[in-house]
Amino acid sequence: MDSNTTNQEIQRGLKNRHIQMIALGGAIGTGLFYGSATVVKMAGPAITLSYLIGGIIIFFIMRALGEMAVDCPVSGSFSQYAYQYWGELPGFIAGWNYWFNYVVVGMAELSVVGTYMNYWYPDIPTWITALICLVVVTFINTVNVKAYGELEFWFAIIKVLAIIGMIVFGVAMIAFGIGNNGHPVGISNLWEHGGFFPNGVLGVVMSLVLVMFSFGGVELVGITAGEAENPKKQFHKQ
Asked: N or C terminus of the chain: which is more exposed, having fewer CB within 10 Å?
């Protein structure tokens, strides 16, 4: 699989802002919005340590992927790198493993969309909203790369604003009791009710599975290298 052949039909139309928001938006999704309650239950206040460990791991992974993307900006990303440096079998396995990963993740995401919509519209079956979402996502992925970049940019902006809103509301609840009948929550929950490790170190270890899942999507920045306008310049800025 020659890299020149791989990129013959690739349109380089993604700007730096598109790439940044695709990576950021990719990391904000089901794992954070829906799965965070589960990991908090597993680890308690120590979930902050779980996310710190996960963040450090992802940092080094993305540093390595970023360097390879600058050196060889192809759409196949890590699958192509595995093929190029390790051989056909590792490249084959990496590519199909990633495909299977997103089939499973995609179904999970659609199920969560259906669950959320069912809360507001209980009369609408979950599978209908999931199907509508699937059609919309499929359509977005078939448009030209510039339109796709713009759509991803604005969708990611919405998710980022949602996270900022949650942080502001959380701080207001902790400090002023907004949303809690005017009673400030404070930070005493960090050491009360079983301490910082209510479920022990095992709780932190078990939570890492879902924590790492919540970071899934950051690797998309490497995949965008094949469609970036000027990958060597843009990826140096990441």
From this structure: N
Nearest in space to 54 (alpha carbons), one of 210, 217, 190: 210
Q: How far is CA 119 from CA 97, 129, 161, in A?
A: 33, 12, 22
Question: Per-residue pLDDT tens for 37-69?
Answer: 888 888 889 999 999 999 999 899 888 888 888
Taking the C-alpha atoms of residue 165 and residue 159, their distance in angstroms, rounded to an integer, is 10
Length of the chain: 238
Verdict on whether the full-model pTM lies above 0.70: yes
d(CA 46, CA 55): 14
Burial of 88 (0-12, 13-18, 19+ CB in 10 A): exposed
In the block, tokens 């954070």 appear at 32
Q: What is the pLDDT of residue 4?
A: 47
Q: Output the DSSP codes for 133-165.
A: HHHHHHHHTTS-HHHHHHHHHHHHHHHHHHHHH
Q: Does residue 210 carry a pLDDT above 60?
A: yes
Cα 227 from chain centroid (whole Å):
19
Measured N-to-C along each axis, helices 36-43 and 200-214 cross at an angle, to the nearest 10 degrees, of: 160
Q: Please tell me the distance from the alpha carbon of residue 182 to that of residue 193, in angstroms, as a whole number.
A: 22
